[in-house]
Amino acid sequence: MTVETPARFSPLSQWRDSFAQLPTGVRVRELPCLTQLTLRAEPGSTAARSIEASLGITLPGPLRAEVSQDVEVLWMGPDEWLLVAPEGSRHDLLARLRSTIGDEFATVTDVSAQRTTLALSGHLVREVLARGCAIDLDPRVTPVGSCLTTLLAQAPITLVVRGEGASSVWLLVRASFASYLATWLLDACTEYRGS
């Protein structure tokens, strides 16, 4: 029996032209339809160690993210991680992890349709985000690899610092908040036009 995968759509596809108009110090692009899997396992358990071996990585601790090959593992809570991988890898990754877990006590759930990801880069990223986010993005406080669940302009996000001085970040936002956040980002960049 063949199961058809429903078509997925980018919640921000209509924003590409607007993002292209941003000042040169802030580049925004959507990374739509990434594979996103929620992993729940007891840290240090047999299941967690098997998953770590399968991914070739240690599951990160609080407020951290780690990258293994094409999988980014984000700490979401004491026994919860979000695995982010390229579009199209969902079925293979799910099958591999479920096989790895076997009968052990752990779960892996596909939440790919829940969020979209905005990749921000440029020397003004930290300043723009400071307008709506209470997180201190100074590199001494939030170095590369930091993963924080917070609010940006009152929208719940997961922020992943990917570049020095927060010059490159990912914002994972629920699809229902994506347009609101895009509108906010455009407005927050208004004063930097010409920068």
Question: Would you mind describing this structure in some detail?
Answer:
It contains five helices and ten strands. With 195 residues, it is α+β, with helices and mostly antiparallel strands. The strands form two sheets. The chain has a five-stranded antiparallel sheet with strand order 1-7-10-9-8. The chain has two domains: 13-32 and 114-192, 2-Layer Sandwich (Gyrase A, domain 2); 35-110, Heterotetrameric sarcosine oxidase (Alpha-Beta Plaits, 2-Layer Sandwich), CATH 3.30.70.1520. It is globular, with a radius of gyration of 17 Å. Strand 8 (147-152) and strand 9 (155-161) form a beta hairpin. It comes from Streptomyces malaysiensis.
List the helices and strands and how they pair.
Layout (H helix, E strand, L loop, with lengths): L15 H5 L6 E5 L3 E7 L4 H10 L9 E4 L2 E7 L2 E6 L4 H12 L4 E5 L4 E7 L3 H6 L16 E6 L2 E7 L6 E7 H14 L7
Antiparallel strand pairs: 1-7, 2-5, 2-6, 3-4, 4-5, 7-10, 8-9, 9-10
Helix pairs in contact: 2-3
Summarize the model shown.
This protein has helices at residues 16-20, 46-55, 90-101, 125-130, 175-188; strands spanning 27-31, 35-41, 65-68, 71-77, 80-85, 106-110, 115-121, 147-152, 155-161, 168-174.
